[in-house]
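Quick one, C-alpha cells below. Sequence please?
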C-alpha cells in the first residue's frame, strides 16, 4: 500500500506527462533531444518557473497575485535606471529587488486593510506598477517600451553564463526550488500558510499571526517577481517595462497544475517546478517542429485546459479511493444507519 500511495502522487503523473512530451517531440524532431539545447532552453522560461514558486505560497494561503508580471517589469526598469544613473550594478540590482519587495508589501497591506479580494487589489496594483515602470523608463532616456541596455558582462552572464558546464538558469531554478520547498513543507511558516488557506478564522483563533504571514508572503512574491524581471533583463541584455507582461496567467496555471488549489489550503513546490518544466518544454518542442507563436498559444491553451481538468478528475479519483479505504477499515462490527 505504501508503494502504491507513492506512485499515486500527482508529481509522478507530471513526470509521466513530461516523458510523454519528450517522446512525442523527440519523434517529430531529431534536434529536440540535444542535451545542450534542453538545458539552455530553461533560460527561455526561467522567469515563469521562478515566479511560480512564490505564487504557490500565495495560492496555498488562499490568495492570488495578478500583479506579478507588472512587478517583473518594474524590477527590471529600476535596475536599468539605477545602472544608467550610477554605473553601480550591485546597487542597481539591490534597488530593483527592494522595489519588488516593497510592491509585494503594499499588496499584502492593502489586502489586509481593505479586506477586498486579492484578485481585485493585485489587478489594480498591476496597472499602477506597469504605469510606474513605463514612467521611470523615461528617466533613463528611453521612450515607450524601448529598452535600457549597456549592462556589464558580469550582469549579462547571470542568465547566460554557466558554471562547470551547467547553465546558470538551471542552477538558479534548483536553488530556489530547494529553498521554497523547505520553506513551505518543512517550516512553521509553511504550516501557517496551509492553515490560513484552509480556514482563516480557525487560524486566527488558534493564535497564528495572520497579518504577518500574509504580508511576508506577498513581500516574498514581489521580491522574487523583481528577481525574475532582473533575470529577463540579464537574459535579453536589456531592461524594459513590459518584461513579464505575459507572465501572470502562465504562472498561475503552473501553480494550479502543480497541485495547488485555487481555494487555498494545498500546494506543492515539487509539483509547481515540474509543471513549469512541462509547460516550458511544450513551448520549446513546438518551436522545434516549426509551429508559429500564434499556433503555439492555441496548442498551449488546449493542453492547459485538459491538464487542469485532468488534475480535477485525478483529485476526485484519489478522494474516492481514500473514502473506500476508510470504509474498509471501519471493520465488520460497525454498521451505518440507526440502531435499535
Amino acid at each position: 500500500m505504501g508503494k502504491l500511495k507513492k506512485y499515486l502522487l500527482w508529481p509522478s503523473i507530471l513526470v509521466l506527462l513530461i516523458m510523454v512530451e519528450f517522446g512525442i517531440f523527440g519523434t517529430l524532431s531529431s534536434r529536440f533531444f540535444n542535451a545542450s539545447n534542453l538545458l539552455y532552453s530553461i533560460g527561455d522560461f526561467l522567469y515563469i518557473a521562478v515566479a511560480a514558486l512564490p505564487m504557490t505560497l500565495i495560492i496555498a494561503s488562499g490568495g492570488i497575485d495578478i500583479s506579478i508580471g507588472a512587478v517583473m517589469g518594474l524590477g527590471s526598469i529600476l535596475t536599468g535606471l539605477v545602472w544608467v544613473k550610477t554605473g553601480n550594478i550591485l546597487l542597481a540590482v539591490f534597488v530593483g529587488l527592494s522595489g519588488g519587495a516593497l510592491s509585494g508589501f503594499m499588496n499584502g497591506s492593502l489586502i489586509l486593510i481593505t479586506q477586498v479580494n486579492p484578485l481585485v487589489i493585485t489587478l489594480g496594483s498591476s496597472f499602477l506598477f506597469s504605469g510606474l515602470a513605463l514612467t521611470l523608463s523615461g528617466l533613463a532616456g528611453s521612450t515607450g517600451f524601448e529598452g535600457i541596455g549597456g549592462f556589464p558582462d558580469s550582469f549579462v552572464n547571470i542568465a547566460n553564463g554557466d558554471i562547470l558546464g551547467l547553465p546558470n538558469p538551471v542552477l538558479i531554478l534548483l536553488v530556489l526550488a530547494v529553498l521554497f520547498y523547505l520553506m513551505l513543507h518543512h517550516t512553521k511558516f509553511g504550516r501557517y500558510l496551509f492553515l490560513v488557506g484552509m480556514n482563516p478564522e480557525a487560524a486566527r483563533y488558534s493564535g497564528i499571526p495572520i497579518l504577518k504571514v500574509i504580508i511576508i508572503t506577498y513581500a516574498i512574491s514581489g521580491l522574487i517577481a523583481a528577481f525574475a524581471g532582473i533575470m529577463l533583463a540579464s537574459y535579453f541584455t536589456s531592461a524594459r517595462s513590459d518584461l513579464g507582461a505575459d507572465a501572470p496567467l502562465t504562472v498561475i496555471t503552473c501553480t494550479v497544475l502543480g497541485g495547488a488549489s485555487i481555494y487555498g489550503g494545498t500546494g506543492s513546490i515539487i509539483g509547481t517546478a515540474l509543471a513549469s518544466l512541462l509547460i516550458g518544454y511544450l513551448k520549446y518542442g513546438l518551436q522545434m517542429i516549426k509551429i508559429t507563436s500564434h499556433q503555439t498559444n492555441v496548442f498551449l491553451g488546449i493542453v492547459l485546459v485538459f491538464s487542469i481538468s485532468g488534475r480535477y478528475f485525478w483529485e476526485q479519483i484519489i478522494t474516492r479511493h481514500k473514502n473506500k479505504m476508510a470504509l474498509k477499515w471501519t471493520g465488520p462490527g460497525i454498521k451505518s444507519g440507526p440502531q435499535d
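The chain has 15 helices and two strands. The first strand starts at residue 162 and ends at 163.
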